[in-house]
Queue: 3 jobs
Job 1
Amino acid sequence: QVQLVESGGGLVQPGGSLRLSCLVSGTIFSLVGSAWYRQVPGKERELVAAITHDGITNYADFVKGRFAISRDNAKNTVYLQMSSLKPDDTAVYYCEVVGYWGQGTQVTVSS
């Protein structure tokens, strides 16, 4: 069974940074792609960034130049480095791998 555990969310001031982590188990992590999504109440979940099994990345326009997705296959972990955070980035962030989802981690950007 595939399991994903996100961590690293929290409260940060505008302009600050956070790094989210997603530990993946139950699949051959090095052979699959992964992605980060986010969701705010009343809105659909939206793609933030994705990374293929061999490291090709893709970003939503609203995070380009501010966020970076990466992976460490030795640690079965995918990361989302978030910088220059804005209040509009406030959301629950979810990790996705082969159709499985983590429980989400709250990111709040506020002064």
Job 2
Amino acid sequence: EVELVESGGGLVQPGGSLRLSCAASGFTGEDYAMGWYRQAPGKDREGVSCIFHRSGRLYYGDSVKGRFTISRDNANNTLYLQMNSLKPEDTAMYYCAAVKESRYGYCSDSGKLYGMHNWGKGTLVTISS
């Protein structure tokens, strides 16, 4: 069973930075694409960024391009999201997700994963002065 645990959320002033982490377990030697989503109050869940397991190909949603950087450490099964130049509109619950890579499980160029999602419980990011 895949388990994902996010950490690193908090309160940051506009223009500040934050780094989220997601510790994964249960991949059992298979390749999983991973990604970050966010959901602001009253809004739909939005794909932020995703990354393939071996190739490291990665993609971003338009709203975070140039400000956020996704990375992963496969040796330690950890996913990261470095967030810079944060804005109040970045305030949201941030979720880590993973999909087993296959014809139907992949990271799309919109920054969203496709396939059967495994989800973490989320970490709250608040951008406010």
Job 3
Amino acid sequence: QVQLVESGGGLVQPGGSLRLSCAASGFIFSLPTMGWYRQAPGKQREMVATIRHSGDTAYADSVKGRFTISRDNAKKTLYLQMNNLKPDDTAVYYCYVNFGNWGQGTQVTVSS
């Protein structure tokens, strides 16, 4: 079955960087659109970044120029490089594949 396992979250100071990873199994990794979503306390889950089979990417306006989504098809791993982090980026980050499957989430906290 489809499994998505995120890692790489943690506590970082404003202006810092983190790289999230999502290890995938149970499907042909290179084919579907995948993405990163996040949910802050008291807010709805929102799209952060997506990447298509073609490599085309899309980003939320709030993260453009700071976050980069990528995928390593050989390693079956999705990444989210997050630079210049801000307190508003604090949330649980989820990996998603467009079959409707979600990972368990990884907490990112940006605070001094």
